[in-house]
Structures are given as C-alpha cells and as structure tokens.
Amino acid sequence: MNLIYYFFGTRCQAVPERLFVPGSGQGNSLSKTGALVAVLATVLASAAVPFAVAGELEGVRATSFRAGSSDVDRHRSSRETPTVTAIRRASPSVVNLHGQKTLRNSAASHAGAVGDVAKQVNGMGTGVVIDSRGYVVTNYHVVEDVYEINVTLHNGETTRADLVTSDPSSDLAVVKLRGSGPFETIPQGHSDDLMIGESVIAIGNAFGYVHTSTVGIISALHRDIPVNETQSYHDLIQTSAGINPGNSGGPLLNIDGEIIGINVAVRVGAQQIAFAIPIDQVLETVNDMVTRHNDRRFVIGLRGTSDRAGGLRVVDLNDGGSAQQGGLKPGDRVLKVQDRSVKTPLQYALSVLDATPGQKLRMEFDRDGEVYETFVATLPNSGSTSDPTASLAWQVIGVAVRPASDSFTRRMNSQLSTSYRGGLVITDVRSGSAADEQGIQVGDVLLGIHSWQTSNLSDLAGILEHPEIQSGPNAKFYVVRRDKTLYGHMQLASQTGTSRR
C-alpha cells in the first residue's frame, strides 16, 4: 500500500497514499502510530555559480570597475528576470517558524528504542504576513502542540509568535508576531484564474534553510488528496516547484510575486509533485476563523461582503446590535475601522481583531456618495452560541476549548504515570472571567474540574450540567502548561444568575 508521510523534523507517520506534509506538525494524524525515520537532503548543482556583485550590494555601488553604465544596465537587465523581481517583492513578508514539541515514539525499534518513549522533536515551517500588525497565516500542523513558536524574519531578526486561532480540518492557523511592527504584508493574488503551465515560485524554511526559493510550473489544478480516514485536502494546486520539510505554510507565488497558494504537501518518492491550498480558499477560511474568534469575545452585529467600489458593503445588521445603534444601515460601505482601511470581509475581521469587549471603534462609511463617521461598541459576548457546551464553557468558566490531540494524551500518561483519557486545549479566554482571574492562558490544556476529568467535550458538558457546578462553586481545576501540571481554584459563574464579567 502507498503511504502518506507527515513530517515534523525527522519524525514521520505512515497513513494511506504516499504523501507527506512538509511542515513541523502532524495535524489530525497524530492519533495514528508513527514511525521514526531520518531524512537527509543533499542538493547538488549541475554547475558552479560564482558569487558576484551586481549593481548594489549592502549599499555599495559597483561603479569603480564598470566600463560603462549602458553595459552594466544591459547586463543587469538580463539577470534581473521576472523571477528575481517576484522573489524580491514577496520575501520580506515571509517568516520562518521554529519550535519544539514532545512526540511519543511507539514504533522506533529500528532506531534502537525499546517500548514507548517521549522525544523532543525540532520542528520547522513557514508563514506569510497578511496584516502589518504581525498577523501570519501558516499551516495548523506547523504550530500544533508547539509551546514556543520562534520566528526568524526576512532581515535575520528573531522574535516569537502566539497562536491566535486555528482550524485543524482545513490545516490552517493564524499566529501573531511579537513586536510593534509594522511588518510588510504579502502581495495578494487570486487562484480562480490560474493556468496550467504558468510559472510559480515557492519560498520557505526548507530543511531549516531559511528563505529557500524554488521555481516550477502549475502542473494541475483541482486535486483532491486523501490524508487519512477522516481528513483530506480538496481542490489543491499541483506544482513542480521544489517543496521540502519546512516549506509548509509558505507561499506559492505567481510570476508577479503575488501569493496564489499556501504550500502544504509533497508526494514522497516522486519528483516535482507538490501541492498548495489555493489562496482564495485560504482567505475565505481564515476570514471564517477570525470572525468566529471575534464573535466569541464580543458582538458588533454586522455582516458584509466585498464591494467593487471599495469598502465592505453592509449586508445585514443584528436588530438592536451596536452597529445598528451606531447608525449603520444595509447598503452602507464601511471604508475604515479605527485607522485601518477595509476592502474585504477578512480585512474587516482583522481590523477588529485587537479590539476588547466594551471598546468603542471608530468607523468611517460611505452612504450615497457621502462619507460619515460613527462609533460602534464591541458588546461583551454573553456566551450565546449554537453549541450548548461551548456556550456554558464560555459563560461559566470563560474559555473556548477544543479536544487535545491523542499524542498529547499518550505523552501525559507516560510522563505522569496516569490514565488520562484526554484533555481540552484552551483556545480563547474571556476577559474578566473566572479563568482569566486565575491566569489560565491560551494553549493550556484543561485536564479536570473537581474530581472529574475533562477528557472531551461530552465530559465537560456533563460537569457543567452537574448540580454542584450549576450553583457556581469554588472549583479546583487542573491544567497542563508546557509539560507542567498546575492546579488552582476558581469561583465559577452561577448558571442561575448573570455571567461573570
């Protein structure tokens, strides 16, 4: 049977189809038993390429040795191809991601291991800056279970990033760079008009070699790639550009230097068969991710769509919502939020991402050719949601959660000699909530409340519906943070009264 390999450093895992994801994580496949393999890539050039000075280098002009400016200009023009220009245009907005995660190796007998062992694995991946404040899109499997996301910028500076929101099913995540910025953003292209045979460029952290650039063509479009029994990629771009472990989350560019896809996988054992998620699909998914993240924290009550004339066309308003109270009407075009221009739903979602519940946002909008200004409040979210468990968790504890991966459960049981069935990863913390007051952080894993385990969402639902919890007790909780088990006590909000603020 063919195999798909997911790579995290030198760790890989076998599942049907022979494909691997060239990033630092394993996505939803962590529940499968993996095999440890060593990967070594040796790049051989067919001809030596000498180092040379062309035009300007580090601010030093090559004027002292040129015979004539016209000769140099002709020489430079023949070397500065569209590929060179495209890479130069996009590179400043590409970041290289590094981190560590602990993986259990249950099938490493060929590597000399006996039984189950925990192993610290170095991971690597790539991301692209989509907002000048430092918001970066990458693959979910690059940052999954990584405790500290270390970042190398284009200029060689290093910083860290924090996970903002993620969607494992689409294998996408958004992280935010630490630092004031502004950061250069990736030029945006489209993937609805791609042509088979057109030139493309990949930039990424290939095998840890930061900002590695490779070229190829679009080999095919609309590829559906199965990963395992529960996950698959749909409508991918197939390319011949060289993609390796560490390229995951990096950009696939057109010849104009615009991003047209996010590199995600290659076919193991084949040459020049790689895949990227189309950028139109990426931006739509990221917009949904950021919007859900915002909706968990506060309510504005505005939905809109892109408008050819520019701005975000208001399509619908919640009755009594803050956007309606601020005077907005369907058909208005939102032009700015605070000092940030808005042209698409994603730009609108990103423009309010830094807002806090209760904050008043300045909005500039167009109505019938006249520009107006209003202030719209971000009303605190009461926890209303279509998922009763998520609603209770947000109201009573003040957290949004998702199930932890199976690899985390196995690792915790091995390290602590326990029999935990699982845990819930904290993806968001409501300001002023019981969780916030006790210092619970995004990325912590909730293991239990009182004497009950929170191994999955069903467990959490049963706990929150228990009479002892509904009265709003002082509850003992257990969390894991960077492989350390912590506990504390928090005063839960009573479900019979108003929620905590």
UniProtKB/TrEMBL annotation:
A molecular function GO annotation: peptidase activity
Keyword field: Hydrolase, Protease
Biological processes annotated in GO: proteolysis
Top-level lineage group: Bacteria
Keyword Phosphoprotein: no
UniProt xrefs under InterPro entries: Chloro_Bact_Ser_Proteases, PDZ, PDZ_sf, Peptidase_S1_PA, Peptidase_S1_PA_chymotrypsin, Peptidase_S1C
Domain PDZ: 289-343, 376-458
Family: Belongs to the peptidase S1C family.
Protein name, UniProt field: Serine protease Do
Species in which this protein is naturally found: Neorhodopirellula lusitana
